[in-house]
Design a protein that fits this description.
The complex is a heterodimer of chains A (213) and B (282).
Chain A lengths: L1 H11 L4 H19 L4 H27 L1 H7 L4 H29 L9 H54 L11 H28 L4
Chain B lengths: L2 E12 L2 E11 L3 E5 L6 H8 L7 E6 L2 E2 L4 H6 L1 E4 L11 H9 L7 H11 L12 H12 L6 E5 L7 H16 L3 E6 L2 H7 L2 E6 L2 E7 H7 L1 E5 L6 H4 L2 E7 L2 E6 L2 H7 L3 E4 L3 H10 L1
Parallel strand pairs in B: 3-8, 3-9, 6-7, 7-8
Antiparallel strand pairs in B: 1-2, 1-4, 4-5, 9-10, 11-13, 11-14, 12-13
Classes of the chains: A mainly alpha (213), B alpha/beta (282).
């Protein structure tokens, strides 16, 4: 059941498949060449966020346009399953981007290092935080209204980010002081991402359960 | 015949519109027409049945069991046809079918293939390219390919040409012939004249009547006659009355009383539309 719902979300965005596949292969390389040494993590993270958001957004746009979810909810599919499918879609997208990045790193004729467990875990955590916020907001306010909310959030980011970075720099939090090896920290990030994902999923299920379709 | 679906005091406030204590039941092996003008509450009732909107109060039972506690079983045993289809236009018929089929535990792919062949639908075509009639046939093919006991249809004939509407009515008669039931909402009552066994009229969010069609048509009469036949007592027998210089015409719900009190009048059999409009105009 869940497989077909996830497949449906991918099919709804099928017109972007080729473009995003190329983006997944080319973007990390391009960003890396601009950043040079140590640019593997940001190049992977930025390209994955871009691809996952575009795919997710395309599926949501089609969902909003055709209102197919109302039909699906009238079949034995539960609303809960529809919500879970959205989270699975994002997880699959991340896995696909990771796989494509690894393939690119292995075959690209330039020095693009493979991501270590720490970097992978951190990417999972940041992406999970992003989508952990995006998905419930979209279920709560619908596709159209949430677009304006995201636009507003992106708009205020340049004004808020310097203060956040300053705050982080001044804070006593230092990851290197944590008595854990980097791979273990990576696993900790994945665990944290799983907790955030589960909380976000529960919120989305609750919000969607009471929505009129 | 036992009731297949029972709706008791269903209530929902939607802005300024209120679905007010709606109660009715559907009988096994029957086509029940759910009639009313646009905005009467037909789609709201159907959406409440399907759980697409949350009810404020009331209870819905399917084969005696509350659908709230047996949602999966209920949805597995019903087929649905919604007014706009609510299909993903960018998917092909086959892709959409694969999504829908996976949700039903008793999906019959051979039956679906038979229906698709019968309706002449191309499975590799995009849904968005289908005509309104083809779209409706596809919706029916999806709705009847898992041996559903009850088919719930919201305005299926709206926007269809007479030939497709006729074909649709034949499909419904065939379906009911297999012992299944159909609940069909429509504001085009001429279609129901031919196929409906039961009729439920909703207006302003309230059920006006719920009766057997033949009984309803027998009970009501379209009366025409000279104005001199009318007096205060006889006027009270009419649901609606139009008086002109040449005579009157009106619809009564008590033909026997009209016959007793008015000797020189013609009484004709009304259409469902006549009956519906007269109750709405009251």
């Amino acid at each position: 059941m869940l497989y077909h719902l996830v497949k449906k979300d991918f099919l709804l965005a099928k017109r972007y498949w080729i473009v995003l596949l190329i983006a997944a292969l080319v973007l990390p390389v391009f960003i890396h060449t601009k950043l040079m040494a140590g640019g593997e993590f940001p190049s992977f993270f930025i390209s994955t966020l871009f691809i996952a958001y575009l795919m997710f957004n395309s599926a949501s746009m089609a969902e909003d346009k055709f209102r197919g979810a109302a039909y699906l909810c009238a079949t034995p599919y539960t609303r809960k399953k529809l919500v879970i499918a959205k989270y699975v879609m994002v997880a699959v997208l991340f896995a696909a981007c990771y796989l494509l990045y690894t393939l690119t790193a292995l075959i690209a004729p330039l020095e693009l290092r493979l991501l270590n467990l720490y970097e992978s875990g951190l990417a999972v955590l940041i992406l999970q935080i992003a989508f952990g916020v995006i998905i419930p907001i979209q279920y709560r306010f619908g596709y159209e209204k949430s677009r304006y909310i995201f636009f507003f959030m992106i708009f205020i980011t340049p004004f808020v980010m310097p203060s956040v970075i300053k705050l982080l720099q001044n804070s006593s939090m230092d990851w290197s002081n944590i008595p854990l090896s980097q791979p273990m920290q990576g696993l900790l990030f994945v665990l944290l991402a799983a907790v955030i994902g589960a909380a976000s999923l529960l919120i989305s299920i609750r919000v969607y359960a009471s929505r009129d379709l | 015949m036992k009731p297949i679906l029972e709706v008791n005091e269903l209530t929902k406030q939607l802005g300024s519109f209120k679905l007010d204590n709606v109660s009715f039941s559907l009988t096994e092996g029957c086509i029940t027409g759910f009639i009313g003008v646009n905005g009467a509450g037909k789609t709201t009732t159907i959406k409440l049945l399907l759980g697409l909107i949350q009810k404020d109060a009331g209870e819905i039972k399917f084969f005696g069991k509350s659908i709230q506690n047996n949602e999966h079983e209920f949805k597995n045993r019903i087929g649905i046809v919604l007014d706009d289809g609510y299909f993903y236009d960018d998917l092909t018929l086959l892709e959409m079918k694969n999504v829908i089929a996976a949700s039903y535990s008793n999906w019959d792919n051979r039956l679906f293939k038979r229906n698709i062949d019968r309706f002449g639908l191309p499975l590799n075509q995009r849904i968005g390219t289908l005509s309104k009639g083809m779209r409706m046939k596809y919706a029916i093919a999806l709705a009847i390919s898992h041996h559903a006991d009850l088919l719930i249809m919201d305005e299926p004939t709206s926007g269809l040409d007479p030939q497709v509407r006729l074909e649709l009515m034949d499909i419904l008669l065939e379906y009911v012939g297999e012992g299944k039931s159909v609940f069909l909402s429509s504001h085009i009552t001429s279609d129901l004249d031919k196929v409906a066994d039961m009729l439920i009229l909703i207006h302003g969010g309230r059920i006006i009547f719920s009766e057997e069609k033949d009984l309803l048509l027998d009970k009501h009469g379209l009366v025409k006659g000279d104005n001199k036949e009318l007096n205060e007592q006889s006027k009270a027998l009419f649901l609606t009355l139009d008086e002109t210089d040449y005579g009157f015409s009106g619809l009564t719900a008590d033909k026997a009383a009209v016959r007793r009190q008015m000797k020189n009048v013609y009484i004709e059999r009304p259409s469902i539309e006549d009956i519906m409009l007269s109750y709405i105009k009251r």
